[in-house]
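haha ok so turns out i had the wrong file open the whole time. this is the CORRECT one, sorry everyone. sequence first:
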Amino acid sequence: MLKFMLRAGMKYDFNIKDIKYLKILYTNENNNPVYVKASVKRMDNREITACIKYEENFSIQTPQDITLSIVREEGLYRAQTKLKSYAFNEPYINFYLETPEDFEYRQNREYFRVTADYDCLYHVKNNDQPATFDTKIFDISASGISIILPAPVFSEEDAEIEILTGERIIKTKVQYIRSEKINNDYKLSFQYTEISDNDRDFISKMCIQKQLEDKRNRNI
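then structure:
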């Protein structure tokens, strides 16, 4: 785990397992900006190793100044740094970056959890037998969801949740993350493993609208 300075003056810990992905903005041979989505393989105080999918005849000038974004659940951390070199390692291409000294934090609103009270159906294997629970959502974001159950029922395999919003029914595959006891019930948290882009966009807009409503209510 590494400590980085945010430009707001605060220190922040980065743990690789909490990073969703990296975004790297570089300039190609035609001097055009190119965004690539990358996975982080290694990170220390001197160097970050990232990888992208292999492309035949891939070539960019190095070293060069780039923009690095680290995408996490709560938001995006952006910094200017240097792409030192790259290497082919099929089926990937490895990028070797200088580790920035500081980052600028930008809240990613679409991944912010908001409280919700929608009905939902939770389909899961309970003791290796298919089971369906008619329950309620506790909170939701464009990346995951929490539901309320009287007991922590989950499986190692992906389960399915149907969200009944009133406007549409959203079906998504989910993976169990953790559970937390709340009064006499349990809050089970999941991340989406299979969801359509349209449904994710719908949830994102729903979360933003709920945030604006909550802000207006606090100002009344």
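The chain has a mean pLDDT of 86.
again sry for the mixup
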